[in-house]
Design goal:
The protein has 602 residues and is mainly α. It contains 24 helices and two strands. The chain folds into two domains: 391 residues, Up-down Bundle (Sodium/glucose cotransporter), CATH 1.20.1730.10; 92 residues, no CATH class.
Length: 602
């Protein structure tokens, strides 16, 4: 069977599974639509949470970022996993005990204000829509390479699949579909890693293979990789640090608290029957997440090793000089996987010196020895550009693994993107139908009417998400990090103060959310040039690029969160404190016994 046929078969079977589950688990009430009826098994909910949380960024991009950045890429591992622990330990049990199933509803009830709920809806929509751009882009990338269609057609197909199981199934359909998607994505991630670890080190467990010696050699994989990348003019793989230590710390913190503030993940803890089940579900989710996240560093390092070995034959295994005339392969003889990925535009080769060879080194290096060797070899700059997003998807092709493994990876990448897209759409839908329509504009709407409103909101959200995927805004690069920054600067502080500060009032919470959101968007948009002020250089508005202590826009969410906290407490000090019954409710929520049912009513 040809590779393309195998891919069609595996991906088609996975889609049929998702649609079949959606038909079986379709929602018949608002409780099932918003919270899957509140009776999902903790283990299954842990799998669904893991799939919801591990987006296309985790499956497709993270290992690629680590592969490119080396040690510095650890900030994504620490930020995202640390954020999940923060969410599971500090927020989820208390929110579950509160008994509501959306973040804006919690904020509206805790801060005794429909205005506070509306502000939370605004923050949720900005964060979720920003995040979903990355998911739809991931769907387009996976489809364009593996199904032989354009990324635009891929996004349309992805929209149709999500529509089938999200609109009809609601949270119930999404939950059980995400269980299946977790199984698909984790198999797709770990099986190739096992194959490649065996090829390179002879060790079947990738986590152990990362620290083992290369097969048939007395040098470790990481030591060899360090040697090769430094010879090519890149930073040492195991110690490279992008930017300053302060920026790395703030970036990690932004990802961490942004993860804890993401509404589509928080909603998952309302689908279990009790606080005890929520804690158990959180623990299981962490186990399921850890399987992928502990594998990612091995995937990154091994993919980097295989990529360099493909482009510069013998350099990795035989210590050949990477600058020797015969070190680089002839462009005409480049492997088929490179030709396939070139069609997507995510891998590019430009023969800058016309010698017909693919010459790959860091032409931005300041290492005099590397520059000298490069000039002697007649090189005129790096000739190969590899987008980080292809590392995981192309990994089995680079390693010449069986066709069924390549097909499985295609299905896994799509599962990761679609599962998170569905969770985000559910958060958007519930914010519109429940927190705006039901709680603000039409309090007397019937359950049937609310359910229909939720489905209509979901359908409209899918169309908007598809449009953003097809026509990404100018700041689309780094949208995932931006989404975490928005959640970190707006929702996370409000949730934390709502649980742990009984004196925090509605005025403080609203002022904090709006100020954190505004300052983060302002800093990001100034870098991306999304202002229209005649005669003004965008970066002049903030004093230049990364002008705030060298902090990059993707890391600025933590600063926005600090502004949120400070403004909230300052406003709180000069306004009236919350009513006594609200303060008593906050204290009761923190008592580790008992739980209200998930009903969503006031």
């Amino acid at each position: 069977m040809e590779l393309q046929t195998t891919i069609y078969l595996v991906v088609g079977l996975s889609f049929a599974l998702y649609i079949g589950i959606a038909i079986w688990a379709r929602a018949g009430s608002t409780s099932e639509f918003y919270a899957a009826g509140g009776n999902v098994n903790p283990v299954m909910n842990g799998m669904a949470t893991a799939a919801d949380w591990m987006s296309a960024a985790s499956f497709i991009s993270m290992a690629g970022l680590i592969s490119n950045m080396g040690y510095g890429g650890a900030l994504f591992l620490m930020g995202w996993t640390g954020g999940y622990v923060l969410l599971a330990m500090l927020l989820a049990p208390y929110l579950r005990k509160f008994g509501k199933f959306t973040v804006p509803q919690f904020i509206g009830d805790r801060f005794y204000s429909k205005s506070a709920s509306t502000v939370a809806v605004l923050c949720l929509l900005v964060a979720s829509l920003t995040y979903i751009i990355g998911q739809m882009t991931g769907v387009g990338v996976a489809f364009s390479r593996f199904l032989g269609v354009s990324s635009e057609v891929g996004i349309y197909v992805g929209m149709a699949i999500v529509f089938m199981y999200a609109v009809f199934g609601g949270m119930k359909g999404i939950t059980y579909t995400q269980v299946a998607q977790y199984v698909v994505l984790i198999l797709a991630y770990t099986i190739p890693a096992i194959f490649i670890s065996l090829q390179l080190t002879g060790v079947a467990i990738p986590q152990l293979g990362l620290g083992s010696n290369l097969e048939g050699h007395s040098v470790s994989l990481l030591s060899k990789l360090d040697q090769v990348v430094t010879d090519l003019g890149f930073g040492k793989y195991t110690t490279s640090l992008p930017g300053s230590k302060l920026n790395m710390f703030v970036y990690t913190l932004s990802l961490m608290i942004g993860t804890a503030g993401l509404p589509h993940v928080i909603m998952r803890f309302f689908t279990v029957p009790s606080v005890k089940a929520a804690r158990s579900s959180a623990g299981w989710a962490l186990v399921f997440i850890a399987i992928l996240y502990t594998t990612a560093p091995a995937v990154a390092a091994m993919a980097k090793t295989n990529l360099i070995r493909t482009i510069t034959p013998g350099v990795v295994m035989q210590d050949s000089n990477p600058f020797a005339p015969d070190a680089a392969i002839e462009g005409a003889n480049r492997p088929d996987w490179m030709k396939r990925w070139e069609k997507t535009g995510l891998l590019k080769w430009e023969d800058k010196n016309g010698d017909g060879r693919i010459q790959y080194y860091n032409d931005k290096t300041k290492d005099a020895t590397v520059l000298k060797h490069a000039e002697e070899a007649g090189w005129k700059g790096n000739e190969l550009t590899v987008n980080a997003d292809i590392i995981v998807l192309a990994n089995p092709e680079i390693a010449l693994l069986p066709d069924w493994v390549i097909a499985l990876v295609a299905a896994g990448g799509l599962a990761a993107a679609l599962s998170t897209a569905a969770g985000l759409l559910m958060a958007i839908s519930s914010a519109i139908s429940h927190d705006l329509v039901k709680n603000v504009f039409a309090p007397d709407i019937s359950e049937k009417g609310e359910l229909m409103t939720g489905k209509i909101a979901m359908a409209i959200s899918i169309v908007v998400a598809g449009y953003l995927g097809l026509n990404p805004p100018g700041f689309a690069a780094g949208t995932v990090a931006l989404a975490f920054g928005i959640a970190a600067s707006s929702l996370f502080p409000a949730i934390m103060m709502g649980i742990f500060s009984k004196k925090m009032n509605k005025e403080g919470a609203m002022a904090g959310m709006l100020s954190g959101l505004f300052i983060t968007l302002f800093y990001v948009f100034a870098h991306k040039g999304i202002f229209f002020i005649k005669g003004t250089e965008y970066l002049d508005l903030i004093g230049g690029a990364n002008s705030f202590f060298g902090i990059t826009p993707e890391a600025f969410g933590a600063v926005g969160a600090l502004v949120n906290f400070v403004v909230a407490f300052l406003v709180d000090k000069v306004t009236k404190e919350p009513p006594e019954h609200i303060q008593a409710m906050v204290e009761a929520v923190r008592i580790p016994r008992g739980s209200k049912a998930v009903h969503g009513a006031h």
